[in-house]
Amino acid sequence: MFDLTLAFGSGVPPWPGEPAPRITRLSDMDVGDACTVTRMDFVVHYGTHLDAPVHFIQGGTDVASLPLDVLMGPCHVARVADSVDTIGPDAFEIPAGCTRLLVRTRNSDLWNTPAHPFHRDFVAFTPEGAQWLVERGIRLVGIDYLSVQGFHDAAPTTHRILLGAGVIAVEGLDMRGVEAGEYHLTCLPLKIIGADGAPCRVVLTQET
User: Fold this and answer.
1) Three-state secondary-structure class, residue 2
2) Cβ neighbours of residue 111 under 8 Å, at least 6 residues apart?
3) Cβ atoms of residues 30 and 133 within 8 Å
4) Could you identify which of 25, 51, 133, 139 might form a hypothetical disulfide with 169, taking C-beta atoms 3.0 to 4.6 angstroms apart as the criterion?
């Protein structure tokens, strides 16, 4: 079993311009309170999270309405060579019938130190790569840094292609130690009505 989820509190960098999570205690047994109660304030696109279509598509599906049958089920993991800077069409083989795809790149090595400065040159999909996924029938795609789209892109075209086609984008995966192959995916976001994204617990188990 592989837990691909980055831990809140581990120092994972926020997206530039967005605040880091704040975790505070409203009450604490260590100071004599009857119980411990924690408050969290965070951007829904922090750490390991997914993007719902409404993130970039006006009137698109929100997190609470995402289909569970897409978030759980057989999943192919593809491994991209460390020499690859952007993921375009035909960057790897997609098995026939695959609808859930996670992509491991050299980005995963960045999670050896979770509290690193935000890395702007992470590996991500080009718009052409996004269109390729749509044409291949992918319904969920995940990647091992904080966006499926490159930081330096002039427009959010990759996001709009994927989300406009109803593809769920899962971002911020820690895929160290995960080899290419077939798995079972469980990706469960917080059920937040109206939200454009949400933190997820993402787990892979070996297909038997």
Assistant:
1) strand
2) 6, 144, 174, 176
3) no
4) 51
The position carrying tokens 């750490």 is: 47
This model's pTM is above 0.70:
yes
Give me 150's structure tokens.
């490159």
Specify the residue for token string 């967005």: 18
At 208 the pLDDT is: 65
Report d(CA 125, CA 149) in Å as an integer.
5
- Give the up-direction half-sphere exposure of residue 36: CA atoms within 13 A in the CB hemisphere: 8
**Torsion (CA) 46, 89, 133, 51 in degrees, nearest 10:** 10
Report yes or no: 172 and 39 within 8 Å, Cβ to Cβ.
no
In the predicted model, what is the mean pLDDT of the chain? 97
Alpha carbons 162 and 160: distance in angstroms, whole number:
6
Token code pair at residue 1? 């079993």
Full set of structural domains in the chain with CATH: 2-206 (3.50.30.50)
Distances 46 to 54, 128, 139, 171, 200 between C-alpha atoms, Å = 17, 26, 22, 9, 10
Token pair recorded at residue 10: 């581990």
Find the mean pLDDT for residues 157-180: 98
> Which residues does 59 contact at the CB level (< 8 Å), separation at least 6?
none
